[in-house]
Amino acid sequence: MNPPPNSPLARRDFLKRSGQLAAVSALSGVTLPHVHAAGSDLIRVALIGCGGRGTGAAGQALSTTSGPIRLAAMADVFSHRLKSSHERLVKQFPEAGKFDVPADRQFVGFDAYKAAMDVLRPGDVAIFATPPAFRWVHFTYAIAKGLHVFMEKPVTVDGPTSKRMFALGEEAARKNLKVGVGLMCRHCRARGELADRIAQGQLGDILMMRAYRLHGPVGSFASPPKPPEKSHLMYQIERFHSFLWASGGAYSDFYIHNIDECCWMKGAWPVKAQSSGGRHYRGNNIDQNFDVYSTEYTFADGTKLFLEGRCITGAYAEHSSTAHGTKGMAIISEKGHAPSLARIYRGHNKAAADLAWAYPQPEPRPLQTEWDDLIDAIRQDKPYNEVKRGVEASLVTSMGRMAAHTGRIVTFEEMLNCDHEFAPGVDRLTADSPAPLQPDADGRYPVPQPGIQTVREYGPVPAPPANRAG
C-alpha cells in the first residue's frame, strides 16, 4: 500500500530524522536467533490485558494447530478482570498442556506486564490487549526481551506515540521479531480474494467508498460520574472507551476496522479528512465521545471514503463497507466483521441478476486466521511485521477523529506531526498517580469543542508565542 504523496512515510529517512530511534537504540542488540522454526517446539504465551478482547485473543492463540502452545502468564491492573479471564480460559481449555497459569504467574499492577513477560523466553509471544495508551510501553519491553508480539488495535491514538511506534516497529524488524496487529480483517480470506480481484481490475477504478458503523452504545462508550471510591486514573482505565487518552475513544476503537478494510481495497491511505459530529443524548455521562460522527476522507487522486458512525439506542443499525467502481460495486463487509460476505456486482445495486462473484460460504473466521498466520510465521521464520501498517491505520483513524473534534480539515502529515501527546509519562504511572485527564470542579472531564478549540481535541490550548520586537 502506498503512503500519501509527500508523506513522511514515503521518505526512507523519516524514522532517522524523527529522532525516535535514539529512544530504542539501546534495544538493538543482536538479531534474534531462529526459534520455533521446526514446528514442534513449545511456544509459551503471556497475556497482558485480561478483558474480553484479551481473553478472546488468548483463546485464539491456544486454538492454533501448527504446534504445541501454552498460556504461561497473565497480567492486568484489575484483579477481578484477571480472575474472570482465568476462569473462562480454564473452562475453554481443560486439556493438559494448553493452559498453565498458577497463582504465582498471575500478576496485578502497573508493572505486572514486566513480570508476565519475564516468565517467557526469547522467541515466545506476548499479547497486548490493554488500552492502546500503553502499547508503546509494553512493546518496548517485549523488544528488549526478544519476544514476538500480538497487539490489539488501535496501536496509537496521537502523533507523538505514532512516531514512537514506527521506530519500535523498525527495531523489532531488525531483531527478527514477528509482530501481529489486531486488524483481523486483513487476514480474512474472503476480503483477501476481493482485494486481489479489485487489484486485477474487476471493479474498474474505485470512485467512492462508504462505511457504516451504526449501533447502540457498546463497551464503555458512555460513562456516568465516577464513583467516589475509585480514583480518576483507575476509573478512566477501567472505562477506556470513554477517554481519548486511553483509547482514542469510540472513533478510534470502533471505526478503525471499516477504515482499514476500505483503504486496503483502495490500495492507499487518504491524505486529508473533514468531519462533523456531536453529543446529543448525554444525560449525566462524563465521557469524551460524540454520539455521531460523519467523515469525508479524501485520497490523493481525489476519490472519497465516506464514514458514518453512531452510538444511539433505537436508531437504524448497520455495520458495513462498500466500494463503488467504474465497473460496478463491491461488498467489502455487510453484517459486521465476520463473515464478510464479500462479493462483486456488475451494477450499483444488490441485484441477484447482477452478481458477478461471491466468496463461497462458510468463511474462515479472521479472528482465528490472524493467529494462524502469526504463529506459522514464527514457526517457519517468515518475515512478519504489521507495525507500520497498524500505525498508519491508527493515524488515519485519528485524523478523522481530530477533524471532527476540532472542526477543521486535518491532513495525514498534520496528524502525524501534531504535538499533543494525550498521556505523556504513561510509562511511569502507578496506582497512586494522577490521571492524564483531570475533571473540573463539577467532576466533568473536558470534551471536544469543534470551532472553539481548534488546535487540540480537548483541554487547554497552548498560548500563542509572544511577539518579539525587532
Written overview of the protein:
- By secondary structure, the chain is of the alpha/beta class.
- The chain has a domain at 8-185 and 369-386: NAD(P)-binding Rossmann-like Domain (Rossmann fold), CATH 3.40.50.
- The protein has 14 helices and 15 strands.
- The protein has a 9-stranded mixed sheet. Strands 3-2-1-4-5-6 form a 6-stranded parallel sheet, sandwiched between helices.
- Strand 1, helix 3 and strand 2 (69-76) form a beta-alpha-beta unit.
- Helix 8 crosses helix 11 (249-266).
Write the layout of secondary structure elements.
Layout: H1 14-18, H2 21-24, E1 43-48, H3 52-62, E2 69-76, H4 79-92, E3 106-108, H5 112-118, E4 125-128, H6 135-145, E5 148-151, H7 159-174, E6 179-181, H8 189-199, E7 206-215, H9 232-238, H10 244-247, H11 249-266, E8 272-278, E9 292-298, E10 304-311, E11 318-325, E12 328-333, E13 343-345, E14 355-358, H12 366-380, H13 387-406, E15 410-411, H14 412-417
Parallel strand pairs: 1-2, 1-4, 2-3, 4-5, 5-6, 7-10
Antiparallel strand pairs: 7-11, 8-9, 8-15, 9-10, 11-12, 12-13, 13-14
Helix pairs in contact: 3-4, 5-6, 6-7, 7-13, 8-11, 11-13
Give a short overview.
This protein has 470 residues and is α/β, with parallel strands linked by helices.
Count of DSSP H/I helices: 14
> Secondary-structure element order, as H and E?
HHEHEHEHEHEHEHEHHHEEEEEEEHHEH
| Overall outline | globular
- Main sheet attributes: strand count, strand direction, barrel closure: 9 strands, mixed
- Taking Cα atoms only, what radius of gyration do you get, to the nearest Å? 22 Å
Q: What would CATH call the class of the domain at 8-185 and 369-386?
A: Alpha Beta
Mean pLDDT: 91
CATH topology of the domain at 8-185 and 369-386: Rossmann fold
Overall strand count: 15
**Percent of residues in beta strands:** 15-25%
CATH architecture of the domain at 8-185 and 369-386: 3-Layer(aba) Sandwich
Strand order of the largest sheet: 14-13-12-11-7-10-9-8-15
Structural class: alpha/beta
What is the rounded distance between the termini?
A: 48 Å
Kindly state the percentage of residues in helix: 25-40%
Low-confidence runs (pLDDT<50, min 5 residues)?
A: 1-33, 461-465
